[in-house]
């Protein structure tokens, strides 16, 4: 049985539950009656056309959007409905290519009160290295953030999102801007991370070819849940064919 991030075996009893969730922005109903369960250790992919409300759903779970309905998290030893610890990497993060900030500086700004221009203490550098080890990114520590490739930037932001270790990792289109080889490397690493730390991953993607190999569950939304199930069930569904006018491949 897997061990949760608290060191206990949870036997799938950790659960993020989204129930009857609706989101309105102004007078527009962006999401309606969304129901979803994510258990610890699961990789769940949220798919749908542009403008379907995928990012909005992630932001509601993050507490950045008002909603009607229930978003609740439960885990052994945790009081019911205590908010989970969530790690988040937003959609299309970008840094100025000329920005002198290094990966080490970025971590120092996020993790320490000491101004980054004073340089990193030896202890902080060790801590940053420990964080980067989780994503096999030790070699990136002195690189400028603006000079990182799409895949390298995702790894660095992932390392930041994993400190402290969250219950749930939310990634909004982590594969966009990453070349095909980098995409497989990133998905392999996410797979390793969720097994090692027994955390749930909820990610949006348009790269449907990755789903059968990596996702436990796929949820197709277009303002409401159209279909959910295993990757094969969703990719072969009439709803998927109707929304994307194709079967499999990339939208
Ligand atoms: P997706 O991530 O699936 O592409 P989004 O969740 O970003 O879709 O957006 C869903 C819909 O909500 C879109 O029509 C978008 O224009 C609208 N929307 C998202 N954020 C805002 C906002 N802050 N103000 C107004 N409309 C928004
Ligand atoms: Mg989006």
Explain what you see.
The chain is of the alpha/beta class and 251 residues long. The protein has one domain (2-95, 148-244): Rossmann fold (3-Layer(aba) Sandwich), CATH 3.40.50.300. It contains eight helices and nine strands. The chain has helices at residues 54-62, 103-111, 122-133, 150-161, 180-197, 211-214, 231-235, 238-244, and strands spanning 15-25, 28-39, 43-47, 68-74, 86-89, 168-172, 200-204, 217-221, 225-229. The strands form two sheets. The chain has a six-stranded mixed beta sheet, with helices on both faces. The longest helix is centred in the C-terminal third of the chain and has 18 residues, at 180-197. It is globular. The model is unreliable at 1-9 (pLDDT under 50). Magnesium ion binds at residues 54-55, 91, 172.
* CATH architectural name: 3-Layer(aba) Sandwich
Share of residues in helices:
25-40%
Number of separate helices: 8
- Average pLDDT for all residues: 89
Largest sheet, described in full? 6 strands, mixed
Task: Write out the CATH superfamily name.
Answer: P-loop containing nucleotide triphosphate hydrolases
Silhouette: globular
Termini separation: 37 Å
Q: Structural class, please?
A: alpha/beta
Named CATH topology: Rossmann fold
> Which series of helices and strands comes N to C?
EEEHEEHHHEHEHEEHH
Pick out the low-confidence regions.
1-9
Fraction in beta strands: 15-25%
């Amino acid at each position: 049985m897997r061990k949760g991030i608290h060191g206990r075996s949870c036997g799938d009893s950790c659960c993020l539950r989204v129930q009857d969730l609706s989101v309105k922005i102004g007078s527009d109903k962006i999401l309606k009656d969304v129901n979803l369960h994510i258990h610890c250790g699961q990789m769940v992919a949220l798919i749908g056309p542009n403008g379907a409300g995928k990012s909005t759903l992630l932001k509601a779970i993050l507490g950045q959007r008002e909603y009607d309905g229930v978003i609740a998290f439960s885990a052994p030893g945790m009081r019911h409905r205590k908010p989970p610890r969530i790690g988040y990497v937003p959609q299309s993060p970008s840094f100025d290519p000329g920005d002198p900030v290094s990966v080490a500086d970025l971590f120092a700004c996020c993790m320490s009160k000491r101004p980054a221009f004073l340089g990193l203490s030896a202890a902080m550098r060790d801590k940053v290295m420990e964080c980067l080890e989780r994503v096999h990114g030790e070699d990136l520590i002195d690189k400028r953030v603006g000079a990182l490739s799409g895949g390298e930037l995702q790894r660095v932001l992932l390392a930041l999102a994993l400190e402290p270790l969250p219950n749930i990792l939310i990634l909004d289109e982590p594969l966009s801007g990453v070349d095909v080889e980098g995409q497989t490397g990133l998905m392999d690493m996410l797979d390793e991370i969720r097994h090692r730390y027994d955390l749930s991953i909820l990610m949006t993607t348009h790269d449907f070819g990755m789903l059968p190999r990596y996702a436990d569950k796929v949820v197709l939304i277009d303002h409401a849940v159209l279909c959910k199930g295993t990757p094969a069930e969703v990719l072969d569904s009439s709803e998927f064919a109707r929304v994307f006018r194709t079967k499999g491949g990339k939208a």
